[in-house]
Amino acid sequence: MKILFAASEIFPFAKTGGLADVAQALPHSLSKHVDIVCVMPLYDFMDKSLLQKSELSFSVILGDITHLITLYTSNYKGVTTYFIQTPMLSDSQELYSSSSGSYANNNPNFGIFCAAIVLLAKELHVDIVHLNDWHTALAALWIKESAPQIKTVFTIHNLAYQGLFDASMLKYFGIDTKYFTMQGIEFHNQLSFIKAGIAYSDIVTTVSPQYAKEIMSERFGCGLHTFLHTHKEKIFGIINGIDLELFNPQTDTALRATFSSTNINSKYLNKNALLKELSLEISQKPLFVMVSRLAEQKGFDLLIDSIEQILKKNLILVIQVDGENSYKQKLVSIAKRFKNLFLQFGYNEDKSHRLYAAGDFLLMPSLYEPCGLSQMIAMRYGAVPVVHGVGGLLDTVHENQQKCGEGIVFSHPTEDALLDAVDRALKLGNNTKEMKRVIGFNMECDFSFDKSALSYIHHYKELVA
């Protein structure tokens, strides 16, 4: 069985968020059981000197334009990745946006990518194409049309990002108008890439069991809950995982000091190093950290409403965030008034590892969270998660249960609930013996993709049986 795994970003080649981590870790686990290769765009900011030019090449024709596709390859941790290079797709300096907002030509860019996925799948004679999020979703329709012997799996990482574009793009892509229906790819008179993935894939997965349930509701369905209900028999929730080799506090060279579940005291050398970096005295105050994007989804409205009350407590809060919007100005203004709030803008992989290792607690007040990786990484590094109980957070963090993934969970996205959760965390932190037990227990939990990979293998086998 041969699989082609397609994503718009794959670590370590390009990353804006958790999709890149998943698109590396899952194929790595799957490679222990099946023949799998990956494919992603070759963006302009990537270093081509680290890649090898492939002997394969082909052309994609969309509308009146022929796009010559040049392929490059690289091997990371035993998995080969193909990189699609063509000017319209590869000229981007950023993956999805520029300083002025989303690229106006996102649709032809990723339309080209989808068409290239189909042609590459045929060239490689794969059995299954595993598509991820809207950037790849149109490939499901084209595979169904031109290569029905190839089966497709489509994974929804975040339903809120749907790939919606003007209906005029139907002609550009050469898509028959018979597909432009409520049962097909039409969404409020727009072309919906994500609906193509849902409608025309053989199996649809989400990145946690809880999220698979939630998207069937009006609250979390992003306008697609009724449409999803019509496909519910082929929708499954499979929890994400992390790469335990990449996120390993015993070997992580980014840390000031390595540590393990049997040597937790060395973890605090990382906390002391961070406090020194922040020009603070060594302190026993609980350190809360956040590693996030400045997005409504991540609960920043709730955080900003609550943050002054949080900062009046005996704690330190360090937030590493990526993005530019009004939340940034609000946080900067608050940080000027509170000496126990520290902001780090722009994502940095090594710094994020050091934050997880330094933190006593991870704060994650997401309004919704399809899965979330930060809580699993945090537990791996001995930071206890404080989370809103939704989506994958509810599947991976448990309070008052000796069940892998112990933490603090609040059920309602309100200021009172968040403040109460912080208070429960502080109470736990004051109980040194129990705090160390929870840290050690979480660090021994298996948050790898190995179990989830077997679930994907089960579905793959059903498709090719």
TrEMBL record:
Annotated ADP-alpha-D-glucose binding sites: 15
Its ancestry begins with: Bacteria, Pseudomonadati, Campylobacterota, Epsilonproteobacteria, Campylobacterales
What is one process in the GO biological process aspect for this record?
glycogen biosynthetic process
Spell out the PANTHER family in the cross-references.
ALPHA AMYLASE DOMAIN-CONTAINING PROTEIN, GRANULE-BOUND STARCH SYNTHASE 1, CHLOROPLASTIC/AMYLOPLASTIC
What is the name of the protein in this document?
Glycogen synthase
Q: Briefly, what is this protein's role?
A: Synthesizes alpha-1,4-glucan chains using ADP-glucose.
Q: Report domain Glycosyl transferase family positions.
A: 283-436
**Which superkingdom?**
Bacteria
| Family membership | Belongs to the glycosyltransferase 1 family. Bacterial/plant glycogen synthase subfamily.
Q: Which organism is it from?
A: Candidatus Sulfurimonas marisnigri
UniProt catalytic activity:
[(1->4)-alpha-D-glucosyl](n) + ADP-alpha-D-glucose = [(1->4)-alpha-D-glucosyl](n+1) + ADP + H(+)
The pathway this protein participates in, as annotated, is: Glycan biosynthesis; glycogen biosynthesis
InterPro entries from the entry?
A: Glyco_trans_1 (IPR001296), GS/SS (IPR011835), Starch_synth_cat_dom (IPR013534)
